[in-house]
Design goal:
- There is one protein chain.
- The chain is of the alpha/beta class.
- It is about 45% helix and about 15% strand.
- The protein contains 8 helices and 5 strands.
- Helix 4 links the parallel strand 2 (about 80-85) and strand 3.
- Helix 2 runs parallel beside helix 3.
- The protein is globular and about 60 Å long.
- The structure holds farnesyl diphosphate.
- The site of farnesyl diphosphate has 19 residues, from helix 1, helix 2, strand 1 and helix 3.
């Protein structure tokens, strides 16, 4: 969700105004996503590296997150959307952890749609944690080195019970992954758009999904192998 800062700067506003407008974009994008039949969406809301930002901005982002959760939990329940997180939640401020826990508990029973918030998340750290847990399981005799595989290892990732992303969208003209779901995105399609996140709305998401639909996902096969046999 890149470009909040630039959106604000272009208008002579403080960066936090861009983030505030970014939250409004989140709301529109979620509504559109469910309308389009998308069943799971992951928002990279705060990376493990974002702590390096000025303390004032980090504090404002945490405040916005808390405000968003307080405001949106009832809507998540009404729309039967399960809330999940990835990332080290235990390092977030207590007040954010509390509202997160409430929202997660209130929506835990829903199965149709999932909103995943990546908070204090970094893919390399996730993989290192998973490797440590996997090694410990080998030592404890719960896993066997001889049968080590992606399927076995991926159960130790935070996303063990979540499907891999089909489409990854990055806004604001940046064309990096920035430590987002590195292994899970191995076969994802990417859409990079110059639109700044606060301006990313219904039309932009619909266009990105249409672009995704035009792509041929071969997963290593040839086009001919994918063609339906008549
Ligand atoms: C990147 O734009 C954006 C972020 C680091 C924060 C995203 C957070 C929100 C939209 C609000 C909180 C999230 C939720 C789910 C309520 P940037 O600041 O790097 O923009 P710039 O590249 O233009 O400076």
């Amino acid at each position: 969700m890149d470009g909040n800062g630039r959106w604000a700067r272009q208008r002579g506003l403080p960066r936090i105004e861009g983030h505030r407008q970014g939250v409004e974009a989140v709301r529109t994008v979620l509504e559109t996503a469910w309308e389009l039949g998308i069943r799971q969406i992951t928002l990279y809301a705060f990376s493990a590296e974002n702590w390096k930002r000025p303390a004032e901005e980090v504090g404002a982002l945490m405040g916005l997150l808390e405000w968003f959760l307080k405001r949106e939990t009832a809507r998540l329940v009404a729309n039967r959307i399960r809330l999940r997180t990835i990332g080290r939640i235990e390092e977030l401020p207590d007040s954010v952890q509390r509202v997160l826990a409430e929202a997660i508990t209130a929506t835990a029973g829903f199965t149709e749609h999932t909103l995943v918030l990546a908070l204090n998340y970094g893919a390399r750290r996730e993989v290192a944690d998973a490797a440590r847990a996997y090694a410990a399981a080998v030592v404890a005799g719960h896993e066997r080195l001889e049968t080590a595989s992606w399927d076995a290892f991926s159960r130790y990732l935070e996303t063990a019970d979540l499907p891999d992303p089909d489409l990854v969208i990055r806004t604001s003209g940046e064309t990096r992954l920035s430590n987002f779901l590195l292994l899970q995105s191995a076969y994802a399609e990417f859409v990079f758009t110059p639109v700044l996140w606060p301006d990313f709305g219904k039309a932009e998401l619909t266009a990105a999904v249409a672009e995704y639909a035009r792509r041929e996902r071969r997963f290593g096969k040839t086009s001919e192998q994918l063609a339906p046999t008549t």
